[in-house]
Amino acid sequence: MPKFYTVRHAALSLQLNLKTLSVLALLLPCVLACVLLALSAGSQWLSPLTVLNELVADGRYAFVLETLRLPRIVMAFMVGAALAVSGLMLQSLIRNPLASPDIIGITGGASAAAVFFLSFLAGSLSVYWLPVAAIIGALLTALIIYGLAWQGGVSPVRLVLIGIGLAAGMNAITTLMIVLSPIATSMTAYVWLTGSVYGTNWQDVSRLLPWLLVLLPWAMSLARSIDAQALGDATAINLGIALQRDRLLVLFISVGLAGAAVAFAGAVSFVGLIAPHIARLLVDRRFASLAPVSALIGGTLVVLADTLGRTVFLPLDMPAGVFVAAVGAPFFIYLLYRHQQ
Amino acid sequence: MSPLSSQALSLSYEQRLIIDALDLQIPRSEITVFVGSNGCGKSTLLKAFARLLKPQQGSVLLDGVAIQKQSTRQVAQKLAILPQGPNAPEGLTVYQLVKQGRYPHQNWLQQWSAQDECLVTQALEATDLIPLMHQPVDALSGGQRQRAWIAMTLAQDTEIVLLDEPTTYLDLTHQIEILDLLFDLNQQQQKTIVMVLHDLNLACRYAHHMVAIHNRTVHAQGRPEAIITEDIVREVFHLDCTISRDPLFGTPLCIPFGKGRRLLKEQANVLA
Question: For A35, which of A20, A46, B147, B218 is 20 to 30 Å away at the CA?
């Protein structure tokens, strides 16, 4: 039986699920431990104790840790967290557990725009504009999906069907552009498409961070509406939700999160699908509980995947996207198995 | 004044006119039942009364003001609708579902006031769901599930409750259980209840006010004992019948003609 803790003051009243709180309290140290492990691992193994020391007092590993590894880890974490929350929002919006930014074409749109940039514009424009191109691609795709789905309002089924159609179209365009472009560009495009945080610096981190600082709290502010929308259109309207307005907001926040993440790290797939499911196995169904847990899980998954990517095949640096499924799938299957017992 | 009414209301669905220029007033603190044949537009009309469907022309008035002009949140504090065959997300518990009923009364800072807690508990008690409150809704039987949804609309604490075929897919025992629950709510809390029912005889038993919908408008309305006649049933349902009295309640009892086994008088007497 679930236990609750009720907060009640003049200006504030809340009901907190104790299990969710304890899961969060257990998850945080795990996440920190993974980050520490990721900082230790690399072409040169540093013991976690050394890492902790170096982080406070600049020593001989400061460059490796603070310029090479840390920004990359922070970026991987932010990308995973953004994709996870984006996937969670899409799954609630479309009321389908298989929805994620890569399935309804948002990642596809960002990829097509990015590959277009790499193939045709990279000669004349600085590569700093690549994220901008990807975000524009994601938003344009979302607009097209929303526009085509509109029938005096949009229904979840139309959104997902049109999204899947568009995703296929975008993938075809991406492949066509790769085939048509010179071989050197194709290689860059392929790495980008797999999803990689290789060579991230603090400047990249500071350009992605504002997106999350705006969009994640905004998503949380819609938490109660998202929960009510899950009960079906008629019930949501009955409860006094401005359904079409909130649905549009949820879609665009989700696209913004996925677009920004994909813009900086490429088309990392699978996190948006699996992180929310793992969160559902751990905590209660409310968005306010699922979102932070999904974000922590998604972030950690990408950090672990990237750590594997840059250590297992040394001296090669494999894109993180290759390992996300490798890390996430067994954990997910384990949880499903344990859940059945 | 009627709490809920329509004024020259026309409704259409996919370019087909369903309701044509209808003026209808729902009486306060009574149970109103819409009856009519399949596809006559009774559910459509109920949806329009709950602002789930935009009028083609005319308007629905809630407390005298056009419902489309009021904020949907304000409407949700006065009127609740239970749609037909609602679906809860997998794994959602009864308690979580019923708590959602408080949504229109909450805001970002006040998410769980003492009143919220009190009304959710009352709704669970009224529907006998306290022992099942932490069960997932999708694991319940049909009747229990419908009670859980009704509990949600009760927690919403509105003066008006609309229900679209609340007894569909339930066996007779559970149909009576749900209708008794609604009758109690009307008697004890003076709630205005409007529902669509298929069973004419049960409708006659529970309705104070019956609205028979036919041919895009209201064909007859009033106390069931005043309006249910053989002619009306033939016109509205295209059914030949004889009208008798319910031996327990005295309300009209519609006995359809048609085919079936016919017992001889002696056999019937033996059984009686």
Answer: A20
